[in-house]
Design goal:
This protein is α+β, with helices and mostly antiparallel strands. 44% of the residues lie in helices and 13% in strands. Helix 3 packs across helix 6 and helix 6 packs antiparallel against helix 8. The longest helix is centred in the last third of the chain and has 27 residues. The mean pLDDT is 96. The structure holds adenosine-5'-diphosphate and magnesium ion.
Length: 263
């Protein structure tokens, strides 16, 4: 029996669960992703799906039991303990990823990739819907479609955007999931959970601003391509005006966030 799994936008309706198996559309570079997912547990990271099969443009992976928060995000997913555990999870993931040699010549996804590249494979899509929780703590990472070489900070910056969230108050207030959250305090909690170095803390805000630029370009490409559901959502949220406001706010609050990170 197939159960449709919801959470993503890209593969909406096309991700199926059959018992312990998730069956989903495969990326052109799925063989390389599968080799990476095979290697992760050998380097101590067991909280990602394990590849099971790949044929006819579909891939099969193990289902990671637990809870995934979907919009509107339930309270348990936005607690400070959840954020601390997310930081720790990303640290464990990067520790394992840094031990796996980057395969040369792989056409990794470029959509959300770190424009500066890097020496480890980043997840590059650390949104709320791609994290599996157990008992209120971030346990596992799923959906490696966007994985690409990058700086470890790239995953943290992407996570900050969705979990702090790094959104101006007006935009944040549009989502019931984010009501009452203090992004300045929460960014610090994420960095502490990751045990972020002083050097990385000093650079973090710059990377967050780069993520906003890359996400904006990715959205523009999808709008351009005429993704109907997306274009409607985009127009309902006042289009680029929202992005202008978000980016202006980020630049304006840069010093405040930085002070909280390095205090
Ligand atoms: N291996 C897995 N283990 C547990 N849940 C999964 C797994 N793969 C997908 N899901 C669930 O299905 C949803 C959509 O799958 P995902 O692979 O993230 O698709 P998309 O590429 O559209 O984002 C996820 O948000 C999650 O709720
Ligand atoms: Mg997803």
């Amino acid at each position: 029996m197939n159960e449709v799994l919801s959470g993503g936008i890209t593969n909406a309706g096309a991700v199926l669960r059959r018992g312990e198996i998730v069956d989903r559309p495969a990326q052109p570079h799925a063989p390389a992703i599968h080799r990476f997912l095979e290697a992760l547990p050998k380097h101590g990271f067991t909280a990602a799906p394990k590849p099971v099969g790949l044929a006819d443009g579909r891939e099969q992976l193990t289902y990671v039991p637990g809870d995934v928060a979907l919009m509107p995000y339930p309270a348990w997913s936005m607690t400070e303990a959840a954020l601390t555990s997310l930081g720790a999870l990303l640290r464990r993931f990067h520790h394992a990823s840094s031990a796996i040699a980057l395969e040369p010549g792989v056409p990794w996804a470029t959509d959300l990739a770190d424009p500066r590249g890097g020496t480890i494979l980043c997840h590059s899509d650390t949104c709320v819907e791609n994290v599996v929780f157990r008992d209120g703590e971030a346990y596992g990472l799923i959906d490696f479609d966007m994985a690409a070489p990058g700086r470890p900070l790239w995953d943290l910056a992407m996570a900050a955007r969705y979990w702090a969230p790094m959104l101006d108050p007006e935009t944040a207030a549009e989502s019931p999931s984010y009501v009452g959250l203090d992004p300045v305090r929460r960014l610090r909690i994420l960095a502490d959970g990751y045990q972020m170095s002083a050097e990385d803390r000093a650079e973090f805000l710059n990377v967050i601003e780069e993520v906003a630029v890359v996400e904006r370009a990715e959205l523009a490409a999808r709008v351009e391509a005429g993704d109907t559901a997306l274009v409607k959502a985009f127009n309902d949220h006042s289009g680029w005006a929202t992005w202008d406001r978000q980016q202006a706010w980020l630049a304006d609050q840069h010093a405040t966030f930085l002070a909280a990170l390095i205090r």
